[in-house]
Specification:
Largest sheet of chain A: 2 strands, antiparallel
Order of helices and strands of chain B: EEEEEEEEEHHHEEHH
Distance between the termini of chain B: 54 Å
Strand content of chain A: under 5%
Strand order of the largest sheet of chain B: 3-9-4-5-6-8-7
Number of helices of chain A: 11
Mean pLDDT of chain B: 94
Oligomer: heterodimer
Low-confidence stretches of chain B: none
Shape of chain B: globular
Number of helices of chain B: 5
Number of strands of chain B: 11
Structural class of chain A: mainly alpha
Radius of gyration of chain A: 28 Å
Mean pLDDT of chain A: 88
Amino acid sequence: MLIDRNQELLEPGTVGADINPPPLLTETKTVATTVLTEDIGYIRKRARNLHEETDELHQQGHYAEWNARTNQQGRTSTQEMLDELANLGFAWRDLAKLLGVSVPAIQKWRRGEGTTGENRQKVASLLAGCDLVSAHYGIQEIVSWFEMSMQLGVPVTPIDLWASGRPDLVFDFASGHLDSEQILTAWDPKWRDRYRSDFEVFRAGDGYLSIRQKER
Amino acid sequence: MAHDLEYPGADGVPDWGSLYRARGVEVVRHRPVFTGDVFEKVLVQGLGETKTKTVIVLQHPCALRSNGVDLHPRLMVAEVRNHRVIPVEDWTGHVSKMPLPELIPAVETGKRHQAAFFEEPYLVRSDDLTLDKRITCLSQMGVNMLLQRWVHHNSRVVVKTAMYQEVSSPVYEEADLIEEWCEERAEAGLEIQEAAAEAMKWLREDINSGSTRQRMLEDSQQRSTVRRQMRTALRQFG
């Protein structure tokens, strides 16, 4: 049987807090805290599972809605959809990158030359993606958002995520459920090394942007 | 992670097509001359004699024009000629060249793959770089890689292409907008030079106590606004 040594302590004086040994626990207390630790561990595990399940469910929701919006957008012609994307402010070269085609291909579509069903679907899905993040996450100036670096000094934008086939990360970034570091790591685990640089951009004496070595 | 000369593609897999914005029949006349444009049949002054060569423009985008529209009378170029494909793992070598694989994808002969040779630079008259002689325009990434290799060749310093991207983005954007403006205005009967001057005037217009749309292009967050404004302005021409 353990003795409650708290009962046996001398008057500790002003330094008591420093010299007193930690209180010993009774067997009952030990058992209770063990149970408590196990309970909390179990709840934590459940919370983690629940978190993962809701993440997955949220992504499924995004996909389902994105698909529905894509089907809706796909009813209009490719030319009209491109006009709409242009009116949002996209550059033609960025649209080419987002859709995985060349700039001349986009120029042909703009002139009304035929597109394959697959390409029409790609255009519709981009427009639907823009609709989705604007509608749910209140993102203003959607193109400007697509062109925004995800972190200072890291030239990765939502355009890069989308163009590499990761619209899920675009939606997660828009929703704010993952922070930019988590998104970048999911996209490219080596991003920190890849974009570390000893150089920086500055405005030179002639007024133009230039590159120089960073001060150490 | 040490950094070296880059290649087009990722994880050791080449993506040669990503070097180019337009090749052959895809090249449009409306696009202003830019760094990395390849011209054929250009007169160059060799050692004692004049020859015609295929060349690539080396001059930095900011150093091409004196007033935003007119090219400097003479520009620096390098000769472009046939060269075998350099595999991506060897792009860290061949430092005196800019590989241009699949430059002419329509042919299967040795002419299909070429390279720019930095050790064979020339100064050419810019009025000889006529748009009908242009056979290729590089993509922004292609321009960045050309600048990376050209600067390394001259200085032995490797700067990541992401840095060139940051510096050259505003001028690449400007070229895109002028191309779009000229294409639209050509339908109204304007000559390219006339339309380009009109576009530049619009870009340099004082819009807010000294600020211009050209200056706005330096901020990636304002570029889409300029594009929207430009498309609205073009629609107003009717």
